[in-house]
Write a structure and sequence with these properties.
BD-FAE-like_dom, 11 helices, disordered N terminus, globular, GDXG_lipolytic_enzyme, 8-stranded mixed beta sheet
Length: 285
């Protein structure tokens, strides 16, 4: 028992010492949209060349947040490169602009893999909250020009990813309009601002913007982590996409935290860090 504990302590110290404290490359421009640069930061692990890449999208209700506070730097301690992506917020553009930016960043990262040393064939997406919605959409919405966009060019490169991690993200706006109409129907609410209208006024667009409706034959493996007590994104959003994955016989892992809210330290305990890292390692390594 003592030896096992010592081993865990040593492993934790190794991971901590290997973590990158700041970006290896800052403010790399992946696209210019109407004269405005869209940038990303890149964190590379110390010891790995041709390492897998995790592309991270921040939360903030699609209207706030920054790629400068990613919260995933710890993955470099497990040998992953991490790119944190800036995308247009809803005060600038409505959906699908945010997804176009996400896919443009993935294509840029894949096209520039030889320059920075990570493996273009092993890319996953991770997001928190609204960023998780984009991470899922980037992984699930393939082969649709309306959702792909041309932001940043690099159209010869694919935006396909190998795995997705969803931290408490929205998956079905039609369902959300039923369980949380204050988030979807009211002018100024987060989903209203994303879509440019109430869900009930444009259900077709709401479906196109919902990850659950894109689960199909090519759905990448998905890890879902959500709080049972989440007041902002109801846990039914997690249950919905898990059900769609299971119906399509696609690989999905789910962790529902019984006392979990919308984010918080519990989601990033060593236990869940290890689970997320193991999932990404299984599907990207």
């Amino acid at each position: 028992m003592r030896g096992r504990l010592l081993g865990l302590v040593i492993r934790s110290l190794e991971i901590a010492s290997a973590m990158i404290k700041g970006p290896t490359y800052s403010d790399l421009t992946y696209a210019v949209v109407e004269g405005r640069e869209l940038c990303l930061d890149l964190y590379l692990p110390f010891w790995t060349r041709s390492c897998p890449l995790v592309v991270f999208f921040h939360g903030g209700g699609w209207s706030d947040g920054t790629y400068k506070r990613p919260g995933l730097e710890w993955l470099t301690g497990y040998g992953f490169a991490v790119a944190t992506v800036q995308y247009r917020l809803t005060n600038v553009a409505t959906f699908p602009a945010q997804l176009h930016d996400a896919k443009g960043a993935i294509r840029w990262l894949r096209a520039h893999a030889p320059e920075y040393g990570y493996d273009a064939g092993r890319i996953g997406t991770v997001g928190f909250s609204s960023g998780a919605h984009l991470a899922m959409m980037a992984g699930l919405a393939q082969g649709d020009d309306f959702l792909e966009g041309v932001i940043g060019g690099n159209l010869e490169a694919s935006s396909v990813v190998n795995a997705v991690v969803d931290y408490y993200g929205a998956t079905d706006f039609i369902l959300r309009a039923q369980s949380q109409p204050e988030q979807t129907e009211k002018p100024g609410s987060v989903v209203y601002k994303l879509l440019g209208s109430a869900v009930s006024e444009n259900e077709s667009l709401a479906q196109q913007a919902s990850p659950a409706y894109h689960v199909g034959e090519n759905a990448p493996p998905l890890f879902v982590i959500h709080g049972e007590q989440d007041p902002q994104v109801c846990v039914d959003q997690a249950h919905r996409i898990v059900a769609y994955y299971q119906e399509n016989q696609k690989e999905v892992t789910v962790e529902i935290l019984p006392e979990g809210g919308h984010g918080g330290a519990e989601f990033f305990s060593q236990k869940y860090r290890e689970q997320v890292a193991a999932f990404l390692r299984e599907h990207l390594c």
